[in-house]
């Protein structure tokens, strides 16, 4: 749960463009590196879980393709 919260904080800081102490986040996430090395699938699961509340607070902007790219 802590890892989900930490990654959620990173996502929100980026989306809201409020900046964050990326070095602090990196240092904290370094604690989880061994677990992620043992089971890389955990990272995808945790990112998915972190995105859910981040999307509720600040959804990612939709990607808009130029009209000519859609008809191509």
List the topology elements.
Elements lengths: L1 H14 L6 H9 L2 H6 L2 H17 L9 H5 L1
Helix pairs in contact: 1-2, 1-4
How would you summarize what this structure contains?
The chain has about 70 residues and is mainly α. The protein contains 5 helices and no strands.
Question: What does the model show?
Answer:
It is a single chain. The chain has 72 residues and is an all-alpha fold. It has one domain (2-60). Helices cover 71% and strands 0% of the residues. α1 (2-15) crosses α4.
Percent of residues in helices comes to over 70%
Q: What does the main sheet amount to? A: none
Multimeric organization? single chain
Total DSSP E strands:
0
The DSSP helix count reads: 5
The shape is: globular
Low-confidence stretches: none
Gyration radius from CA atoms, angstroms: 15 Å
* Alpha-carbon distance between the two ends: 44 Å
Which properties best describe this structure?
single chain; mainly alpha; 5 helices; globular
């Amino acid at each position: 749960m802590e890892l989900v919260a930490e990654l959620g904080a990173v996502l929100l800081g980026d989306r809201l463009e409020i900046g964050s102490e990326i070095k602090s986040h990196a240092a904290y996430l370094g604690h989880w590196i061994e677990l992620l090395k043992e089971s890389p699938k955990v990272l995808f699961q945790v990112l998915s879980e972190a995105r859910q509340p981040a999307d509720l607070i600040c959804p990612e902007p939709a990607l808009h393709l130029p009209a000519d790219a859609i008809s191509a």
